[in-house]
TrEMBL record:
Subcellular location(s) of the protein: Cytoplasm, Cytoskeleton
Keyword Cell membrane listed: no
Name by which UniProt lists this protein: Dynamin-related protein 1C
Keywords: Cytoplasm, Cytoskeleton, GTP-binding, Hydrolase, Microtubule, Motor protein, Nucleotide-binding
Entry's family note: Belongs to the TRAFAC class dynamin-like GTPase superfamily. Dynamin/Fzo/YdjA family.
PROSITE patterns registered for this protein in UniProt: G_DYNAMIN_1 (PS00410), G_DYNAMIN_2 (PS51718), GED (PS51388)
Species the sequence originates in: Rhamnella rubrinervis
Listed CDD domains: DLP_1
InterPro entries tied to this protein: Dynamin, Dynamin_GTPase, Dynamin_GTPase_CS, Dynamin_N, Dynamin_stalk, G_DYNAMIN_dom, GED, GED_dom
Gene Ontology cellular-component terms listed: cytoplasm; membrane; microtubule
Keyword Translocase included in the entry's annotation: no
């Protein structure tokens, strides 16, 4: 079974380690909060400092008027062998031993001022003081600022509330033992410490009552009713203390002599003689030490459970932000490649629909490209005036015989040229989507968050590849447009000509019917002069029409424009399908296959120093990892030491 000294010493050691890591308690659940402790609570001038000095057997605390204790003082007492030298150590000055306790008093004042300044402000950052002496018991006490009712000159208006909140943050924890200090020469009903203890510990299970200044009570009065629990009952016995008088303090009366004087007072007192064996600072120290050891033993299972839970959480946090990187180049190269693969997985998930964003590429093909094609200025290009101009220029000095083939070709070439704009715009739009997906993928790759330099390098390499893919894609879609212009689909025009001839045959049949009707009407007066003149004029007009069609008539020009627009519609439908295929093949497919291929090639040529520079981490993240690693080491060490001590 573990000894009292080993258990309390274990808690002391863990508390010191917590303080180094900034775990001061008083704010949320932590390892500090899980450790049992004794908090000394009392109003100003209640005799708190004198009780602590009596327990220690040394005069070491700063004294003065107003708020003297402005930071929590974690006082860890370690019992040493008889005859050994007494000394003190501060956690903030670990390699310095104080054998002069006047210097300890000055160091407490100086360390308080270092955080709070020369003002009368308070701070919750504790001072850790360890005292090694044969005249103490193994015990840990936390001296808190004295409770006050009003702010005096030089103190902030909120000082009363600030002190109470700080004290309450300690004593409301279920593992805190409350040492409530009350002066005997005041009504116990007005005790600040008892009032606060009743609020946070209504059953009195965690509260020890201490009555000071018994020797200063008015003659004819005593505190027997309080000490015997009749005035205010606690589950633990009340302890009376007789402090050094101010005259003894001024004379620097030895604390050990003061203890002897205290024992004599109780043993010879007619009021308290029957309680002498349960009174005094020495009895108080032993009582607290035994109770603290009992509480620690009871709390060990819950402390171990908290430690194991926290270790798991810290390990998970380290896994999330990443473990430290090895220094050899092979490990660094492996780490970089793993980061690149993780990024590549996220990027492909965006493209394939596992994450949002890839659907925007389809939006380019389904909405943006068709909308751009609809806005092309074919009506202006194929207006009657422009068709007439282009056909005339193509004919030159010799008009076309049957159909203006060169005119058709020029009109078609000019119209197809307009498709280059929407085709290249589709390439650029997909390029922007891919760049945005690269940015999002880098931000969403958890493994990369710790390496800002590597993030920049991957982004630069990916964007460089995307730029190369874009250029190749532009060349491809431009070739698609130019191919449509370089070889026209002859069957389309043959089909149009065939349909036009069928229409003309139907028109001629109708004309013949009309001619036969006119012929019957004219048979009666065929020989008349008017008939011969009319027929002569009709035949002349018919010959002129059939021999030389007016190449600039609106009907003729409209038919040319209509034929060209029909062909361009066919080309448009073709490109609407082939442009997306080319863009996906040249950009999306290549991005999935070889986005970082050049980057991988360059990595193999880099020197160790350059690889290390790529893995340069965010200083804040490095600091966070270091803090987690230290806390993890603390909790593992605490677990090991508890395992060693608890079951000895």
């Amino acid at each position: 079974m573990a000894t009292m000294e080993s258990l309390i010493g274990l808690v002391n050691k863990i508390q010191r380690a917590c303080t180094v890591l900034g775990d001061y308690g008083g704010e949320g659940m932590s390892l500090w909060e899980a450790l049992p402790s004794v908090a000394v609570v009392g109003g100003q001038s209640s005799g708190k400092s004198s009780v602590l000095e009596s327990v220690v057997g040394r005069d070491f605390l700063p004294r003065g008027s107003g708020i003297v204790t402005r930071r929590p003082l974690v006082l860890q007492l370690h019992k040493t062998e008889n005859g050994s030298q007494e000394y003190a150590e501060f956690l903030h000055a670990p390699r310095k031993k104080f054998t002069d306790f006047a210097a300890v008093r000055k160091e407490i004042s100086d360390e308080t001022d270092r955080i709070t300044g020369q003002t009368k402000q308070i701070s919750n950052i504790p001072i850790q003081l360890s005292i090694y002496s044969p005249n103490v018991v193994n015990l840990t006490l936390i001296d808190l600022p004295g409770l006050t009712k009003v702010a005096v000159e030089g103190q902030p208006e909120t000082i009363v509330e600030d002190i109470e909140n700080m004290v309450r943050s300690y004593v409301e924890k279920p593992n805190c033992i409350i040492l409530a200090i009350s002066p005997a020469n005041q009504d116990i009903a007005t005790s600040d410490a008892i009032k606060l203890g009743r609020e946070v510990d209504p059953t009195g299970e965690r509260t020890f009552g201490v009555l000071t200044k018994l020797d200063l009570m008015d003659k004819g009065t005593n505190a027997v009713d309080v000490l015997e629990g009749r005035s205010y009952r606690l589950q633990h016995p009340w302890v009376g203390i007789v402090n050094r008088s101010q005259a003894d303090i001024n004379k620097n009366v030895d604390m050990l002599a003061a203890r002897r004087k205290e024992r004599e007072y109780f043993e010879t007192s007619p009021e308290y003689g029957h309680l002498a064996h349960k009174m005094g600072s020495e009895y108080l120290a032993k009582l607290l030490s035994q109770h603290l050891e009992l509480v620690i033993r009871q709390r060990i299972p819950s402390i171990i459970a908290l430690i194991n839970k926290t270790i798991d959480e810290l390990n998970a946090e380290l896994d999330r932000i990443g473990r430290p990187i090895a220094v050899d180049s092979g490990a660094q190269l492996y780490t970089i490649l793993e980061m690149c693969r993780a990024f590549d997985r996220v990027f492909k998930e965006h493209l394939d629909g596992g994450r949002p964003g890839g659907d925007r590429i389809y939006g380019v093909f389904d909405h943006q490209l068709p909308a751009a094609l609809k806005k092309l200025p074919f009506e202006r290009h194929l207006s009657l005036k422009n068709v007439q101009r282009i056909v005339s220029e193509a004919d030159g000095y010799q008009p076309h015989l049957i159909a203006p083939e060169q005119g058709y070709r020029r009109l078609i070439d000019g119209s197809i040229g307009y498709f280059k704009g929407p085709a290249e715009a589709s390439v650029d739009a997909v390029h922007l989507v891919l760049k945005e997906l690269v940015r999002k993928s880098i931000a969403e790759t958890e493994e990369l968050k710790r390496f800002p330099t590597l993030q920049s390098d991957i982004a630069a390499a990916a964007n460089e590849s995307l730029e190369r893919f874009r250029e190749e894609s532009k060349k491809t879609v431009t070739r698609l447009v130019e191919m449509e212009s370089s070889y026209l689909t002859v069957e389309f025009f043959r089909k149009i000509h065939f349909e036009q001839e069928r229409g003309q045959d139907r028109d001629r049949e109708k004309d013949k019917d009309k001619d036969r009707d006119r012929e019957r009407e004219r048979d009666r007066d065929r020989d008349s002069y008017s008939y011969r003149y009319e027929k002569q004029m009709y035949d002349r007009h018919d010959k002129q029409s059939s021999s030389n069609v007016d190449r600039y008539s609106d009907h003729y020009l409209k038919r040319i424009g209509s034929n060209v627009i029909a062909y361009i519609g066919m080309v448009c439908d073709t490109l609407k399908n082939t442009i997306p295929k080319a863009v996906v093949y040249c950009q999306v497919r290549e991005a999935k296959r070889s986005l970082l291929s050049n980057f991988y090639t360059q990595l193999g040529k880099r020197e160790k120093e350059k690889l290390g520079a790529m893995l340069d981490e965010d200083p804040a993240l490095m600091e966070r990892r270091e803090t987690i690693a230290k806390r993890l080491e603390l909790y593992k060490s605490a677990r090991d030491e508890i395992d060693q001590v608890a079951w000895k």
